[in-house]
Design a protein that fits this description.
The complex is a heterodimer of chains A (230) and B (534).
Chain A lengths: L2 H35 L3 H4 L2 H27 L7 E5 H11 L1 H7 L2 E6 L5 E5 H18 L3 E9 L2 E8 L6 H5 L1 H5 L7 H16 L1 E2 L2 E2 L1 E6 L6 E7 L1
Parallel strand pairs in A: 2-4
Antiparallel strand pairs in A: 1-3, 4-5, 5-9, 6-7, 8-9
Chain B lengths: L7 E5 L3 H13 L4 E5 L2 H10 L4 E5 L9 H10 L8 E6 L4 H5 L8 E4 L4 H17 L1 H9 L2 H14 L4 H14 L3 H14 L3 H13 L3 H14 L4 H13 L3 H14 L4 H13 L3 H15 L7 H14 L7 H17 L4 H15 L4 H16 L7 H13 L3 H15 L3 H8 L5 H4 L3 H16 L2 H14 L4 H12 L9 H13 L9 H12 L2
Parallel strand pairs in B: 1-2, 1-3, 3-4, 4-5
The chains are: A alpha+beta (230), B mainly alpha (534).
Chain lengths: 230, 534
């Protein structure tokens, strides 16, 4: 067996372990929510519960991302684009984070341009990007998160705004490096950018390639993550 | 929030914890009527007795059980749910094998475990909104009226152009069902030019192939596979193209690729088995047929041909010293299932016995003889036509089993029924050198061609005369009989009795014995409904 084969085997081992972890986590989340449902209201709404919900979602998002990266690596990531109703799509993503948003007192809202109610993309993949972005925004937001959908020269633009401190200047300056996976000290946000960039780039139309962008400011004055889909 | 208190819900999951967890979520949403099932089989029974508005179906219901996709296919094919009902597939993970197998019947939504109440509520509410928007289309689908579906799509797009992409698939399927091939091609072309959708490529490829535009279909599939390399249905189409071009080795490779992507596909496995047999790759053939048999057990695509194929592949793989015990056991199991499941099908009874006899020839000649004898007895009384492929294998096995005479009569019969097809004649030539058999169909086939030529000139009387002469030589020939019937129906009033109508009905009656899998069966049915009234 040569070295390359060994490396491949190792990543497969990791991927199937992550797969198991994700299933375990799903069982944990399920059991916890059932257990919670049997408790009185006062015992349910505790700060600890907020931490548990947030970290569950964060763990889940990271595992989905890891599996996604593995599939991208072995070229197993299928693109299944279709038309989707955008308000439905965003509502569904926010609904997953309902408990966390409520426990942290964060107002999440969205605006969809009524002239373009449909988007064309791979629901599963874009949902995983959005889930990570929302999770990240929740971590940094003080009171509010805003998701907007607009149209820029025929491209669909999804932005996730928060009212936190924004991205570090160094990260915005070198965002291309993160997207290309060059920056080694990336951490979870950097990996998220890499993953989002790869998924955006899978979406192409007439030579235009999907991309991501991070900025500070926007309507809420904090971090702004934008996803451009042709 | 929507009111659910009068809606009927069905939860299908093999875990009771999960059923009760969803049930309590639904209760909190105001749902009163919730039924549960722990298997697909039970779900199908319940759906045949009660019209559910919502079905929450778990995908994986345990090994050896129907999976969620199979349940959905059964529900749709057997019309056990309305198109207006909401069907949500609940999955433990977003597995590509699952999503990719769902091109024909897609669930309304996928919901990944774990999900909270807000997610469930949001999903249901949205699906109800969409179904309300599409209501006229869905009701027309329930009535099975493609023209009404098409009109409903047009009306909806006029009412709100923004939603026209949601109608595309319904429009295309309606045009396909209406046989409006030109309009359908234009629609597919415009979709692909704007935003390539995998199903549009698949649909256009099928359309081109059906029309005989094989090289165009090939070019399209090549282009489509560059954009959607993970879409098994495109590989299926490509394999069809390669088979049509005579490249069975290439077709096998392409299908193996598709199976790597999506192994859960009974028909694809069976097709691979058949191709591998053609290519004499008996290992691949037995593996594919074995999969087709085991997956097919719970599916509506269960097909005795796969069992026979598996046995044939295993026999072909065997050495000159015969078969080992394990292989004989597998052959026995798979063939017994054919005989047991198809008690009233003489063709399958005969073929299963001859196949088993062939497998026992070296190890248990006595039983082989007994089985052959049984098969011969049934063959004598059999009226139905076997497919050319099945008939030729039977002839070959009769030869191997020392029944040369029966084999010859099988071949003669085959020439009579299928002799106008050069491909069949080529296969017959592999089994015999006897010119009396090989040439027995020539005169009739020549006449048939002549008849077609004359028919095209419009000389109806002369054409009928020629077909009549050909049919007298080969009364069981499917092509000639169909041509005879068609020429007789041409210009004949079928509402009053006439000699032409009687003769037409006679010719159709004979070829009515053809297998339903024959490519000409739809043409036969069309002629039959004209001649006998629908």
């Amino acid at each position: 067996m040569n070295e390359q084969q060994q490396a491949l085997d190792f990543s497969t081992v990791i991927a199937s372990t992550v797969h198991d972890m994700k299933n375990s986590l799903a069982m944990l989340m399920q059991a916890q929510s059932q257990w919670l449902a049997r408790l009185p209201d006062t015992a349910r709404q505790t700060p600890e519960q907020g931490v548990i919900d947030f970290e569950f979602a964060h763990l889940n998002g990271m595992l989905v991302q890891l599996l996604g990266l593995y599939k991208l690596g072995v070229n197993q990531m299928p693109l299944q684009p279709a038309y989707h109703e955008l308000d439905d799509f965003i509502e569904a993503q926010l609904a997953c984070h309902h408990e966390v948003l409520a426990s942290r007192g964060i107002m999440a809202s969205y605006e969809v341009d009524p002239l373009s109610p449909l988007g064309f993309f791979d629901r599963e993949l874009i949902a995983s990007v959005l889930a990570n972005c929302i999770n990240n925004a929740i971590r940094h937001a003080r009171h509010a998160i805003l998701i907007t959908v607009s149209d820029a020269a025929g491209q669909l633009v999804l932005t996730i705004n928060d009212d936190g401190d924004g991205y570090p200047a160094q990260m915005i300056e070198h965002q291309a490096d993160y997207v290309q996976g060059i920056n080694q000290s990336s951490g979870s946000t950097g990996l998220g950018l890499y993953f989002a960039g790869r998924i955006a780039a899978l979406h192409q139309r007439n030579g235009v390639v999907g991309r991501t962008e991070i900025n500070n400011g926007g309507p809420l004055g904090g971090g702004v993550f934008s996803l451009y889909l042709p | 929030m929507l009111s659910y208190h009068q809606k009927r819900f069905l939860i299908v999951d093999d875990f009771s914890d999960f059923r009760s967890s969803i049930r309590s979520m639904l209760r909190e949403l105001g749902v009163k009527d919730v039924d549960t099932a722990d298997s697909g089989e039970q779900a199908l029974r319940m759906c045949s007795q009660k019209a559910y508005d919502f079905i929450l179906q778990d995908f994986h219901l345990g090994d050896g059980k129907k999976n969620g996709q199979q349940v959905l296919e059964d529900l749709m094919e057997e019309k056990l749910i309305s198109h207006e009902a909401v069907f949500v597939m609940v999955t433990a993970e977003t597995s590509q094998a699952m999503v990719l197998s769902a091109l024909e019947h897609e669930p309304d939504a996928y919901l990944t475990k774990p999900f909270n109440r807000s997610s469930l509520a949001q999903r249901l509410e949205r699906l109800v909104q969409r179904k309300t928007l599409l209501k006229p289309i869905l009701q027309a689908l329930d009535r099975g009226k493609p023209m009404e579906v098409f009109n409903a799509c047009i009306a909806l797009c006029k009412q709100d152009i923004r939603y026209s992409p949601l109608c595309l698939r319904y429009r295309a399927d309606a045009l396909r069902d209406l046989n409006q091939t030109e309009a359908l091609e234009r629609l597919y072309d415009s979709i692909i030019a704007d935003r390539p959708l995998p199903w549009a490529y698949v649909g256009l490829g099928k359309l081109l192939f059906k029309r005989g535009q094989v090289s165009q279909a090939k070019g399209l599939y090549e282009k489509a596979l560059k954009t959607f390399p993970m879409m098994p249905a495109l590989y299926d189409g490509m394999a069809d193209v390669l088979v049509a071009e005579g490249d069975t080795k290439g077709a096998q490779q392409v299908l193996e690729e598709a199976i790597r992507l999506s192994p859960l596909a009974v028909r694809r496995q069976a097709m691979l088995g058949k191709l591998a047999m053609t290519n004499e790759d008996f290992d691949t053939a037995s593996r594919a047929y074995r999969q087709a048999v085991s997956q097919g057990a719970q599916s509506r695509f269960k097909d005795a041909e796969s069992n026979l194929g598996l046995a044939h592949a295993l026999i072909s793989k065997g050495s000159e010293r015969g078969l080992d015990t394990r292989t004989r056991l597998e052959i026995n199991t798979t063939l017994s299932a054919v005989a047991k499941d198809n008690p009233t099908d003489p063709g399958l009874q005969i073929r299963a016995r001859l196949m088993k006899a062939t497998s026992l020839l070296l190890n248990d000649a006595e039983t082989a003889d007994k089985l052959t004898e049984q098969a011969l007895l049934r063959l004598d009384g059999m009226e139905q036509f076997m497919s050319a492929e099945a008939a030729l294998l039977v002839a070959k096995q009769l030869q191997i089993l020392g029944q040369a005479e029966a084999g010859t009569s099988m071949l003669k019969n085959c020439v009579e029924i299928y002799g106008d097809d050069p491909a069949v004649m080529k296969d017959i030539a592999k089994l015999t050198d006897d010119p009396a058999i090989l040439n027995s169909g020539n005169a009739a086939a020549d006449l048939n061609r002549e008849g077609v030529r004359v028919y095209k000139t419009g000389n109806l009387q002369e054409a009928r005369k020629i077909f009549r002469k050909a049919l007298a030589m080969q009364p069981k020939n499917i092509s000639i009989a169909l041509n005879m019937a068609q020429s007789l129906l041409h210009g004949t009033d079928t509402s009053v009795a006439s000699a032409e109508l009687d003769e037409c009905r006679m010719s159709l009656k004979m070829v009515g014995l053809m297998p339903e899998t024959d490519a000409r069966f739809p043409r036969y049915q069309k002629l039959k409904s004209k001649a006998f009234g629908a």
